[in-house]
Amino acid sequence: MNPENHEYDSLFLKMKKTLIITAHPSSESFTHQIATTISAQNKNAEIIDLYDEKWAMNFLKFESPNEMPEPPVKKVLQEKVAAAHELIFIFPIWNGAEPAILKNFYDQVFSAKFAFEYSKKSARGLLHRKTAQFFCTCDGSGVFYRWKICPLRATWQFFRMRFCGIQTRHFFVFGKTRKRNKNDRAKILQKIKKTA
How far is CA 72 from the centre of its chain? Predict the structure, then answer.
């Protein structure tokens, strides 16, 4: 579809689909509780669990950027991203970064000619009219990761989302997750319900 087509604009505004991308190996994790909570708030939400084998993609391996592999699952994921009005990423922070499986997802799905394109002067994002939210968990303090200058936040918000034309609405980090009891987690989920 051509984003400049008026029929496309009308259809896009009516869909309001939300794509939730999770990246945690345990189905019992707080990451998945957050995803389920957000999904329950939105009838048009779909959860993509990157640890589900049906979404499995090998890590990128190629000799030439012009001959990159195109696994069938990549096309399916790109179609889901294209149809989504909002993308929600939910993942734990491990060693100061996202899980490798999420980075691989971004590298493959948000590829050139789909998420962005190069011109002689610069690059241009192709995924305009979309927004993104981030819900991250970590075992340490979440204060540092919430700063706009934090490398993790800056990388996702500016070098990945904005580069593709996507506007980031929120970047939440919930610290000391492992030490929180059920009541603490329930309060966080209530806050998420109001925000997401």
Answer: 20
